[in-house]
Amino acid sequence: MKRYSFRLLGWLSALSLLVAACQKPEEVPVPQQLIPRDKMVSLLIEMHLLEARTDAASLPTDSARALFRQQQKNVYWRYEVSDSAFVQSYRYYATHEKDLDDIYATVVDSLSLREARQQEPGSPPPHR
């Protein structure tokens, strides 16, 4: 889980730096459907866990990608957001680096706490 989660975190960080370098915060308007920070944190946690589960499935790359995309749609549906609202919100938060840093600090803390709980003796097996 760590390897894949940190790889995704690296890609998302690189993406946010690229977007931030290309545009100033005042150039990116607030999206009409801006996902609130707490909901964005929950969505990103779900996405990282989904990606870790997909990676752990040891599927061929194309099958893993298809599975991830299908499950990603389910996550959007559960949180009642569209993929475009997610992308626009992520882009908005990425151009406001402090916001994205705060969001990801919470995401990383939450994932670390989950991992610590799973490693405790007598803890239930991870949810699949």
UniProtKB/TrEMBL annotation:
The keyword Signal applies. Residues 1-20 form the signal peptide. Keywords: Signal. Pfam families: DUF4296. Residues 31-115 form the DUF4296 domain. This is DUF4296 domain-containing protein. It comes from Hymenobacter swuensis DY53. The lineage of its organism: Bacteria, Pseudomonadati, Bacteroidota, Cytophagia, Cytophagales.
